[in-house]
Amino acid sequence: SWYSSLKNVDPAEIAILFPYLGDSVRFSIMSRMEALGIPVRSHRPSRSLRDEAAVRSLLTLAALAHPQWKIIPEKYDVCNSFVQSIENMDLIRARLLTDIVYRTKDFSLSPFEIIEPKVQERLTAVFGGKYIQIREWIETYKKEDPLPLDHFLRRLFGEVLSQPGFGFHSDDDATTIAANLIESVQKFRWAMEPTVKQEQPVDIGKEYVTMLEEGVIAAQFLSAWAPADGNAVFIAPAYTFLMSNSPVRFQFWLDIGSSGWYERLSQPLTHPFVLSRQWTAGRIWTDEDETGANNAAIARLVKGLLCRCREKIYLGVTDLSESGYEQRGPLMRAFHKIYLAK
Length: 342
Description:
Structural class: alpha/beta
Shape: globular
Number of strands: 7
Strand order of the largest sheet: 2-5-1-6-7
Helix content: 40-55%
Largest sheet: 5 strands, parallel
Radius of gyration: 24 Å
Number of helices: 14
Distance between the termini: 22 Å
């Protein structure tokens, strides 16, 4: 089988590719890989910072530490923050802890000691101890002069969340996301500070969080495109893998029946052909143009992937899409013809 044939292969020599990489698929594959003890990493440059669980966790803790912002986190976000921040904490205990200690009236955290002993035993002393450390750190910070948001996040990460027993200690993916968030906040502060008037003080940290939630801020990070030093399986959309330009021995093309391998995303305001300088003014984009462009794109994509595979390609076929519809895309039909011609 393919699994036994890859047992002695370095994880970095394997790439798992999709037309699109959704949250559920990404989580499912990465969880299974980690359960098998296989190191794995992923890269989705189109994903916004606000969609990352690690980012939401950090910003929730930031809101709790800055009550003057008057940004009230939802219970769901506080619960997610505990799951992300405390190593191995499950969702059930995190929700139980949130329901007891999170006070929505003044969006603060109550001491662990007020919890009934039976419930403390259910939460366990280990998780309770980590919660106490997080809460005490936040309460101590509240008594100090507020720091710029990027400085606050560096301190929180370095003094608490990156330590043994906390969620970011052994999670390389979450650590990278945290670094990207801090870089984004820092650049936002550098850009905003010269424009802030002293007579009208503005909390730049609060403005950053507000704009991020509104979807205004979305940054690209060059570090994410740099060659990885770790020995891990790479999971990414096919075009992202091509742009990284890192050949591997084995590739897995999953969901080859999807039309995403062939069709261009519908983006009328950024149409790459009609809005280019080479397009004839007044000419209408037709179905024939769309089909021709898609055919040329899938040909380039397949050629590019083949040129970056040294040994073997495995194809993954699914009859139904994530939405439950039957899939018979052009890439699957092409491989079907090749199979019948043998």
